[in-house]
Amino acid sequence: MKARELKELSEEELQSKEEELKDQLFKLKFQHALGQLENAMKLKNIKKDIARIKTTLEEKSRGTE
Fold first, then answer.
1. Which of 49, 55, 62, 46 is nearest to 2 (CA)?
2. In 3D, which of 10, 5, 18 has the Cα closest to residue 51?
């Protein structure tokens, strides 16, 4: 997910997307712990997406889009 796409979403949409990604991250961590995760890069990508969303939310709350 690109930062440009995130800036077009509302704060509510961003928060719901963040919760969705956190849930997905939890499931992937569980798979990784059990040795069932085939692509470990998914963990890294989801963490980056969560960070992008948090940054975008912070920018929106400060009004510095």
1. 49
2. 18
